[in-house]
Design goal:
By secondary structure, the chain is α+β, with helices and mostly antiparallel strands. Helix content is 30%, strand content 28%.
Length: 688
Amino acid sequence: MSPARALDPKLFDATIAAVALLAGPEHRLIYTNEAFTRMFGSRPVGRPAREAFPDPDSGRFLSVLADVRATGRARQVTGAREIDPGAVDQAARFVYSCSPVSTRDGSGILVVAMDTTPESRALQRYEALVSAVSQMVWVLHADGSMEEVVPGWEQLTGAPWVGRADEDWYAFVHPRDRERLGGAWRAAAGPGGSGVFQCTFRIRAADGSYRHLSMRSVPILQEGRVTEWIAATADVEDTWGTHLRENLLAQVAAASGGSPEEAFAAVVEVVVPELADACLILLLSHEEWPLPANAAVTARRVASATRPGLPAPPALLGQRVTVTETVREVLERGVPRTFPLPEGGPVPPDLVPAVTERWLVASGATSLTLVPLVVEDIVLGYAATSTNGDTPLPAAADVELLREVLHHAQRPIRKAVDLQQARRTALALQRAHLTRPPDVPGADLAACYEPASSSHEIGGDWYDAIVHPDGTLVLDIGDVAGHDLAAATAMGQLRSMLRALAWHKGPDRTPATVLSMLDDVAEGLAGAPFTTAVHTHLRRRPDGTWHMTWSNAGHPPPLLVPAHGSPRFLTGSGEDPPLCVGPRIARTSHHHTLEPGDTLLHYTDGLIESRTSSLADGQRRLAEAAAHHRDEPLPALLRLLDELSDQRDDTAMIAFRAGPAPTPRGPSGRAPRNSVDTGHGDRGPFAR
């Protein structure tokens, strides 16, 4: 390649642009034209640049020269000079470019300057205008570089100005806003876009909090081509906060029109994703306040929501947690509390149900905030919200807005309270009928009842157990159709009639006969709706086995969990129709033998029903769970099985476990000295 041809400076003698030529490592000035002299005054040709340009503000110019020589790349810079020192508005503005060239004296730099004072004064007026309404004004050049026209970035963020629209700049943008911000810019600046960009997004401030900025950018065209964008940016945090608060509160108020479940679901949808990445609401099982000091109070999840991009929340199964001292303190103080979570680390135990703890870890939760739900000085429960992934931890202002929104959810929550109070009498009536199971020699017995999660639904489920003088054990499980006070009242009547018939006729009547008599009485008195039930007799044999006889009136079949082997449902030769549909239908008794250690479970359909699966799937889950926990004491077994329910319907269960075979007697008729009587097994509050 031939050497570059030396530039002849005489080419610039008549140009209107100011031109200077410098050469050598000291940037010796070898040429200036008349336009340059008019703009910058006479300069001594032949002297190094530091001597030819001794002006106080020439440092930037000299550094640009050094950079061009070192890198071999041209630079374009704006500058200013005083026309009349001390005079107002007498600064001339110019833009100059420095380009590497070859001169007769070796490598050099060509300086070309243009006076932009008229345009600059127009820009000054624009700056003054936008400064009155904007915190910052930026200029974004076509190459992605940015410069501040009206400074404010460092004051807002506490960091030096970021001169390019790259990862360093986006690091200050809230993670949840980056994709939306980039999409809005591509839509405006891309092919077919209007060129006008407008977006509201959050920037991390110097104190670590995020503030909302509104930015509007318009293109600057030259010869039909966009050369740069002027962006006016205003801090709209206060306006945005007011608008968001009003919008959220309006949404919460609108939630009062549906059922309590719908209201709670609407509340969490309002909170997510504006105020949190995930939110769940847990209601206390105890209706007294303050909570009794020694009461085993639980909280149950009734609604949840997660932002897009996170794993789906667990189903409404097993979403229950015992209220610990930490949660009690939050509820009693009535003040939200945030728990920062280590990345990938464990969640503090017993703040939320175990399945939710696992979800928080799996979804990369970084914080968990508990907010008490208070209505008229009554604490109903609490909301638990989380931040996940790269979402920053909530600031104090975020938590306060969250608390305010949940506080204004009082109207739908108040409706839930009213409905809970309305069913309190029915629940008291129902629980009065659900007596403690009796003592059963040679066996264990346990029962439980769990009302539906819906505060306006009152179930008709019941269980019962009586022991005849001859030792025959009678077990009942039943379900009256309906979820209201009428169903609860009918349940009480049917249970009482069945109990009286079973006792009066004694164990000599078969279960089928007893159910037929109940069907006839209920039909004659016209006091009961559609009802399902299982009536069972259990008699212990001398060898420790139990003879089971039962009749099933359209109810889910009993579950047998043998001491060894797979659980199975006892269907006998088939189910008979429910009660109160055909009183003269012949009913059937079925028979089975229970071995020592076998467990028999009677349950209602609330345990196996689900919106998302069939009854067969529910029965399969029940059998698997019972097999997994078969060695648990009966009260613990029932608590674990209750977690299978989605709580949409009330659930009743009564479980029987055959004790070990009788201990062989010695010749004297006494048991061996070291024998242990385990006939009653482990007893819980509802075990005998």
